[in-house]
Design a protein that fits this description.
Blueprint: E1 11-12, H1 20-28, H2 40-54, E2 58-60, E3 63-64, E4 67-69, E5 77-87, E6 97-105, H3 110-127, H4 130-137, H5 142-164
Parallel strand pairs: 1-5, 3-6, 4-6
Antiparallel strand pairs: 2-3, 5-6
Length: 165
């Protein structure tokens, strides 16, 4: 699954933001690997906002899957943000977003488009389950989120098989 991209340093809980711009800023700040490149965080924020202008990445269920390609990224990276109050992403269902899975990919190519599709399909499948999304909203620390995702990843195949049967 996509959980291998999420470690404690890229998970932020308790996000309070008025809009996606502020949420992206909070998610991107302080990510240690990007501190070496001046302006990377701002560039990624601009790219994510530009993607939102094409159409909301909110998928319903209080979840958004923002994503972008950037020459500042050398391998796929993800961020996960939890906002208890929710953020207005102009979701088609009209609901605020409480869970943001942000996918950052290297410069666009056939290979990175394929990787994007695989990761977003897995994330969409996982977050489409209202139980998982609602449980994530309750998480208070990055460690809680990481442990929850690890448990959920172990249960997901068995639950999916049960739904198919």
């Amino acid at each position: 699954m996509f959980q291998h991209l999420l470690h404690e340093a890229v998970v932020k809980t308790g996000i309070k933001a008025a809009d996606p711009k502020e949420a992206f800023s909070l998610l991107l700040e302080g990510v240690s690997d990007w501190k070496q490149e001046a302006g990377t965080e701002k560039n990624l924020q601009k790219l994510l906002l530009a993607r939102e202008t094409l159409g909301t990445t909110a998928m319903g269920y209080g979840v958004a899957l923002p994503h972008t390609f950037s020459e500042d990224i050398t391998e796929p990276q993800a961020l996960l943000g939890i906002s208890p109050e929710g953020i207005d992403f102009q979701a088609l269902d009209g609901e605020p977003v409480h869970v943001m899975f942000v996918l950052l990919l290297p410069e666009e190519s056939a290979e990175t488009r394929k990787v994007k599709g695989q990761i977003l399909r897995e994330a969409h499948k996982f977050f489409s389950d209202s139980f998982w999304a609602s449980e994530l909203r309750k998480m208070e620390s990055p460690l809680d989120v990481r442990e929850f995702l690890a448990r959920a990843g172990n249960f997901a195949p068995a639950l999916q098989a049960a739904k198919v049967s």
